Amino acid sequence: MAPSTNTAQQKLAESTSAVPSSTAAQQSDNVAHALAGAGGGLFSMALTYPLITLSTRAQVESKRAQSSTLKAARRILRSEGLPGLYAGLESALFGISVTNFVYYYWYEWTRSFFEKAALKSGRASKKLTTIESMIAGAIAGSATVLITNPIWVVNTRMTARKSESEEQVLPGAKPAKAPSTIGTLLALIRDEGPARLFAGVMPALVLVINPILQYTVFEQLKNMLEKKRRVTPTDAFYLGALGKLLATSITYPYITVKSRMHVAGKDGPKEDMFTTFRNIIREEGYAGLYGGIGPKVTQSVITAAFLFAFKDALYTLTVNARKKIALGRK
C-alpha cells in the first residue's frame, strides 16, 4: 500500500479516536465545555467589572463620554463610593455564567457535528475550517442572544444608573439605595412592559460577529500552534486576548448602540437600531460611537484572556472529575 495512503488512514484513525464514541459521551463533553466556559466567564468578569462600569457609563452618558477613564472613576468613587464601580455586578455574574454556558454548549454541539461530518466524508483532519468555525459561532451566538438579552438589559440599567448624589440629594441626606437586580427587573416589566427586556436585540444579533471573529482567530491560531506543540493555558491566554482585541475594535459601534437601546426609558422614543445610529452620529459625531472604547477594549481583552486560560483549566478539572466518578462506579 502506498505510504501516502497509510498516512491518510493513520490521521483518520487518530481523528476518530478523539471523537466521543456515543451520543451520551458527546453530550457529557458538551456540558463539560459549557460548565468550564461559565466558570471561566464568572471569574474573569469578577476581576474586570469596574472597567465594564466605566465603559457602559461612557456609552450611555454622552455628555460624560469625553472625560478620561481616571476622571470617570474618581467621579464615581466620590459620589457613589467603591460600590458604584460594582453596580449591577450580581446580574452581570449571573448573566455571564448563563451566556457562556449557552454559548459553549451550542458551539461544542455544532463543532462536534462538523467533526463527525468531516470523518464521514473521509477528510484526514477533523479540525474545523474557517467557514465551519464562523458557522458554529453564528449558531451559538444567535441562540445565546435570544436567551440572555433580558439579563443584559437589566444589567445595563443597573450599571448605567445615574448617581443620586450632588444636585438631587440635600446636604446631610443619604443617597437613595441602589435597586436590586430583582427590583430593577420587576420595575422594568411593570413600567415599560415585558417587550423592553428585548430592547437592543437587533444590534446584539449583529454583535454575534464579535465572538465569531474572536473564536475564528483563536481557533485558527490554536490549530497553527498545535502543529508545532501542545497548547498550554498560557498560550490560550494570549491567543484569546488577541482574538478579542480584534473583534471588539471592529464591532464597538454596535456595542454602544446596544447599550443606548437598553437604557432608553419608557418616556423616551423607542428607536430602532438604524435610528439610534443616525442620532448618535448627528448629535455627537462618529466619535460618539466609540465612547468608552478604552476601558471596554482593555476589559474585553483581559476578560477574554483570563476566560480562555480559566476555561482550559476548568475543562481539564471537569473531565478528570468525571473520569474519577466513572471509575468509582465500577
What general form does the structure show? globular
Which oligomeric state applies? single chain
Helix count, per DSSP?
A: 11
Radius of gyration: 22 Å
CATH fold-level assignment = Mitochondrial carrier fold
CATH class type: Mainly Alpha
Q: Would you identify the regions where 5 or more consecutive residues have pLDDT less than 50? A: 1-19, 163-173
> Could you spell the SSE succession in H and E letters?
HHHHHHHHHHH
Biggest sheet features: none
Q: Give helix % range.
A: over 70%
Total beta strands: 0
Question: What is the SS-derived class?
Answer: mainly alpha
Distance between the termini: 42 Å
Region (Disordered): 1-24
Transmembrane segments: 31-54, 84-106, 134-154, 197-216, 236-255
Organism: Lophiostoma macrostomum CBS 122681
Main location: membrane
